[in-house]
Design a protein that fits this description.
The protein contains ten helices and ten strands. The chain is α/β, with parallel strands linked by helices. The chain has one domain: Dihydropteroate synthase-like (TIM Barrel, Alpha-Beta Barrel), CATH 3.20.20.
């Protein structure tokens, strides 16, 4: 029996990003048809949005940034997410985006934090949804990383309600990015804090309607490719995380649309090992990691 009955997930396609070697080559050669083909592949695989990031070139070559956006929108009607911390670049992206090519859907600004709030200055001129980072908070004028579920929930609540109350942004337009850490060196219980924070946010009546999301690619970083039972360890870890969090409102993944996500059985080796790992801290957490690839 699976742990999750309703496993509906929204996928924000991540592949239009120079972090992928093949995509970086498309940008370097200005292979617009190749970029369009990648966008089509993501759309056909079911991407609800497509994240767009051309790297540092966005700061120096705004015309190319606009060309990429126009080219993508020529071949797909998927709304876009613009992945840049710079207000200058985001304004170029928002000015280039054509909602009518996406059925009237708003784009997403990825991302804002409590200490990078200037992107919201664009909200009066443009309409958009936002990805809100809950991993960092402002304290005494200094940005600090969140390490507990309470800190993550507090940051998410403050920022989301500020967007709602000060800007009139619907909670449905807010995606709270729940940072998912690599387990290999997680001796401080960061995975546990993230899972617990998702439960807290999902149960908070003031935040009813927000979306919770994240990229899962880090979770199995530097681990052996196969678990003790022979399964794909990294992919199973991603699914184990989702099995625990989807029921509490984690509904969006920044990932590869054709990767495929599904809940794990409760008796799956990786599911059991991940539950055990979440209960550990310090050196016990490091020992618990070995259970993933050693019977």
């Amino acid at each position: 029996m699976t742990a999750v009955k309703d496993f509906a997930l929204r996928i924000i396609g991540e592949r239009i990003n120079p972090g992928f070697k093949s995509t970086r080559a498309l940008f370097e050669t200005e292979d617009i048809p190749g970029i369009q083909a990648l966008a089509v592949r993501q759309a056909e695989a079911g991407a609800a949005y497509q994240n767009v990031n051309i790297g540092a070139r966005a700061m120096t070559d705004p015309d190319f940034m606009a060309r990429v956006i126009h080219a993508i929108q020529e071949v797909v009607n998927t709304p876009l997410s613009f992945d840049f911390p710079s207000r200058k670049v985001q304004e170029i992206c928002l000015a280039s985006y054509r909602p009518e090519r996406a059925g009237g859907a708003l784009p997403i600004v990825n991302s804002i934090t409590e200490h990078r709030w200037d992107l919201m200055d664009l909200y009066g001129k443009y309409r958009f949804k936002v990805i809100l980072m809950a991993s960092e908070r402002m304290e005494d004028g200094v940005a600090r990383g969140n390490k507990t579920a309470e800190q993550i929930h507090g940051t998410a609540s403050r920022a989301a309600l500020r967007l709602k109350n000060e800007y009139g942004m619907p909670l449905d337009d807010i995606f709270i990015d729940m940072s998912v850490s690599a387990i290999i060196a997680d001796t401080e219980g960061l995975n546990r804090a993230t899972v617990d924070a998702i439960k807290m946010i999902g149960a908070d009546p003031e935040l009813k309607g927000v979306h919770m999301m994240g990229g899962l690619s880090n979770i199995g970083q530097q681990l052996p490719p196969k678990a003790a039972d022979g399964s794909d360890l990294k992919h199973c870890l991603e699914n184990a995380f989702l099995t625990l969090t989807v029921p509490h409102g984690f509904d969006t993944v920044l990932g590869t649309p054709w990767r495929g996500y599904a809940p794990l059985l409760e008796n799956h080796h990786v599911m059991q090992a991940y539950r055990n790992f979440l209960e550990q801290s310090g050196s016990n957490a490091l020992r618990a990691v070995r259970k993933f690839y050693k019977a």
